[in-house]
Structures are given as structure tokens and as C-alpha cells.
Amino acid sequence: MISPVGSALGHYTHTVELANVLSDIPEQSWETSLEKVSDLKSNITAITTVRISNEDLFDGYDVPQFTDKKDYWLYKWSLKRFFGCFHINPTRIKFFLHKVLCSFSNNAAPFADRFDIETIARINYTSSVSAFLSKLDRLFFSLEFLYEKNIEFKQCCPKKEQSAREFLLDFEIVVGDIKEASKIADIPMISQIDVIYQLFVVLPSHIRNAVCIPHKNPEHLDIFEFRSPIERAWNNTFASAVVPSAPVRTDPGLRFS
Q1: SS3 190
Q2: Do 96 and 147 reside in the same domain of the chain?
Q3: Quick one: 58 and 43 in the same domain?
């Protein structure tokens, strides 16, 4: 609610009058008084603002839906982003996680019973989320899945009429997938050198040369450092010329029987 003083501020046009209303010295300048009026209005607005916690905004319908166990990987990434939107009070963690389980439906529904929220819930939100995701991995992750992600990584190459940015985004996604899958399987992750090597293998030779020649040891750079030079070289290339230039190398560290 605006105070009587606040409501009267707009009716004063004389410097001394306005200074008196503000309980300041009569010699105070008009500009200084206006600044104080502005501050008063800001404070009044802040007082009347109602703060809503993110817990109050949470709705069960906002949770990513898990409708098919075959979609476990995509569901997990959606769920991780969803979890990142909240910081739940410890007293409401169990309620929150039970709400998440309501997103399990169709052939994924029976697996909701495998989550013991009393055991998964921890003393804080971050560790509770981590325990929930770990349980999800234990139920649905397999080495066959890791093998599939490795194949996707090896087969990711530029497609005809695909832009450089589109290809690089696809490549970074499969790199992220193989790293995450390796972490879950508790095996060594693919090295940065092997990631860059694979990128060079699938790039057309003239683009690879344009990117590599300026660098003494390009394989030691991060993939993000190649984005701009690859895009510049790519844009000078006719789309039909975008084809792999060399066979894909098999990484011994990523072989599966």
C-alpha cells in the first residue's frame, strides 16, 4: 500500500515544499529531492511484492514424461535439466521425488515401484537428485547401450547440405553421450585427443587442412576452439563436396566383444 507521503509526492512543485515533505533541509536541491522520491517509490514497490518460491511453482505436469523404457537416455537428460530448475527444501524432497515418479507411465510405469524414496532421499536436494539418477541408470543402463553410443560416435559424419553448425552440434552430442555412458559404466572416458582425431577423420580434407595448418599440435586443442575456423572453411565449400575424406579409425580403448 502507498503511504500518504508517497501519494502526495506528485503534487509538489516547489523545491522547499517538497524538501519539507521529505523531512530534509529547505536548501535541498530539486534534483536531490526527486532522487529521494524515486527511491521511495522503489521501496514501496518492493514492500508490496509477493515472493514465490520455486517449490510453489512446481506442478506434477511439468515433469518430463517417461512413457517408454527405450527412451531412458533422452528422459534422463530431460530430467537432469528439470532437476536443475529447483532447489527443494529438505522437508519436501520426498514429496518432490514422489511427484517425479508420477511421470512414469505405459511400459515404464512398473519401474516406479523399484524406487524406494525413503532410501533415495538424502539430507539435501543435490545428493537426493544424484541418488535418483543413479537408480535410474542401474535399472536401464547396459553395456549394449554403451556399445550403441560408441557406434554413433564413430559414424557421426557430415551429411549432404548440412551446415557446419548442425554437424558440429551433432558431433558434440554424440561425444557427450559416449562420455556420459563411459562414466556410468565406470570405464575410462574417450580422450580429448581421440575426439579431435575423429573429428579430423570425418572432415573433408581441404577443411581439415585449413583448420590444422595454423596449429602446431591441433589434436591437443579443445573442440570448441575449432568451431569458428571450421565454419569459415565450410562456408567456402559447395554443399555437395561435404563427404568424409578418410576411413574411420577403430579405437582399441572402445572395442566391445
Answers
A1: coil
A2: no
A3: no
For residue 44, the number of C-alpha atoms closer than 13 Å in the C-beta half-sphere is: 14
Predicted local confidence at residue 37, as pLDDT: 59
Determine what percent of the chain falls in helix, strand and coil, rounding each to the nearest 5: 65, 0, 30
Residues 39, 55 contacting (CB under 8 angstroms):
no
Q: What percent of the chain has pLDDT over 70?
A: 66
Total domains present in the chain: 3
Which three three-digit cell numbers place residue 121? 532421499
What is the tens place of the pLDDT at every residue in 237-256?
644 444 555 544 545 444 43
The parent domain of residue 168 ranges over 143-254
Q: Quick one: angle between helices 205-212 and 227-235, nearest 10?
A: 140
Residue 226 near residue 214 (C-beta atoms within 8 A):
no
Average pLDDT over residues 56-83: 85
Residue 211 — very low, low, confident or very high, per pLDDT cuts 50/70/90? confident
**Does 160 share its domain with 110?**
no
* The domain boundary residue, chosen from 140, 166, 190: 140
Structure confidence at residue 41 (pLDDT) = 53
